[in-house]
Amino acid sequence: MTNKTFFYVSSLVIIPAFFVLFFIARVLGRVYAIDQWVPKWDTLLMLATMIIIERIYTYKSAVSQKSVLARDVIANVVNLYVTGAVTGMIVLPALVFLPEHLLGRRLVLASPDLLGPVWFQVPVLLLSISFVRYWIHRLQHTVPFLWELHAYHHRVTDLQATNTLVSHPIDFALRNVVVYLVLGIIGFNPLALLIAVPASGIPGTFSHCGGDVKGGLLNFLFVTPEVHRWHHSAKIPEGYGYSCNYGVEFSFWDIIFGTFYLPQRNGVAIQPERLGYPGGGLPDETNYLKLLLVPLGLYRPLSWFRDVARLGRRPEGQQPAE
Ligand SMILES: [Zn+2]
Ligand SMILES: [Zn+2]
After folding, report:
1. pTM for this entry
2. Which ligand sits closest to the CA of 275?
3. Can you give the pLDDT at residue 322?
4. Is the four-CA dihedral 17, 18, 24, 25 of positive or negative sign?
5. Which of 73, 202, 268, 277 has a 20 to 30 Å separation from 229 between CA atoms?
């Protein structure tokens, strides 16, 4: 077997191996409450593994992300350790108390078994999570205010592990946190949640792996890096409106709703020429604060305060006019 064939064949194995190993690890991690010792250990380990894969299976059109590394690190820390906790604090009380107040009962069902046996609840959970996230993501491209927030994620010039979590915190919470909070209080069987929740988070994370890994037939089931690259293409494929491939974990929602795009040549997926802001309008932004505050209309007031503070500090040697 030549070197090239070996790399091609082995690159096909990466995705199923990653999915299976991390599914087992994440379930065991929950059983043994590893998060207690190293919070978010599973996401950190997934990102580290993706970085190693990027080093071995180098992508021919990779774009260095060194210039935005500080922004990436800040965005990762915020969305990994702050966004979920803050969203929970804001949304959970409303989710628990509003139905109780308005309907006179909690949203939580009396018995988890009302939703059917575990083997049935697992696919129901996976389909519900991915269906809701597909539509939230699609709305994030079509509703102007949501797009203002989501555009942040689309200014990256390449998919890499380091920018997996680069998103405005509100955009990130809407797509990645709220759905889990709602499902958590509906009253699914804890075992079904133990299986479905860790499983659902793996493809979405891996879809940002910048390595040259091939999806093969899995491209039509999961959102692989080959599929997600088209979602980040600077040039939107003709006839696809705002974007294509909105799915977060499963690509079949895109196939069902007519938004799937993955051209092939001899059975191998073709990849977009350039990634970046759709239409090529905006370059990537290194200033995290700008990305955080501009969509909320808060950056101008902040720079006004900064200008006032700067005016207060007169350049050295300059005397006040009398
Ligand atoms: Zn998007
Ligand atoms: Zn993305």
Report:
1. 0.89
2. 2
3. 47
4. positive
5. 73
